[in-house]
Amino acid sequence: MVRILTRLDQVKKELEEHSHAALDFQIGTISGDLRAIIAAEDKKFKAGDIKSIDIKPIKIEANEICFLSAYASNTYGHAMAVGEETSLPISMERSADTALFAAALDCKIEEDDLLGVLILLPIKLTH
After folding, report:
1. Of 112, 109, 121, 96, which Cα lies nearest the Cα of 15?
2. Residues 78-90: pLDDT tens digits?
3. What is the mean pLDDT of residues 87-116?
4. Which end of the chain is least crowded, N or C, by CB within 10 Å?
């Protein structure tokens, strides 16, 4: 179960309802996927710290671009980027197992905390 800070029980219930379903969306003719960025370890931060934290792996298909939702999903700070040890070209299947987290407050991020939301959009390469 994902621990979500300062949220109402209704939000937790909705998250549970979607935990086994892809949270797909569509804007006009463009459709994409939403993926929760979930901590895979406990880590302490001081206000102003920006450091990497292990996350539960997120699969990124070939020819998908990533955006981070600007909505603050974590009371203590924001996920700023995701990645993996070796950066691969967008034309290859990739994954994210690390996030860069910027702490706004002193905190301890715990395993299974929600850090942010990754937006995945399919693209067609033209060159």
Report:
1. 112
2. 999 999 999 999 9
3. 96
4. C
Separation of alpha carbons 43 and 39, rounded Å: 9
Number of Cα atoms under 13 Å in the Cβ half of residue 56: 16
Angstrom distance (rounded) from CA 51 to CA 67: 19
How do strand 107-109 and strand 114-122 relate by DSSP bridges? unpaired
Give me the residue label for tokens 């999903």.
Answer: 73
Cα–Cα distance between 116 and 73 in angstroms, integer?
5
pTM of the model: 0.79
C-alpha R_g of the chain: 15
In angstroms, rounded to a whole number, what is the distance separating the alpha carbons of residues 115 and 72? 9
**Secondary structure element (H or E) that encloses residue 122, with its range:** strand 114-122
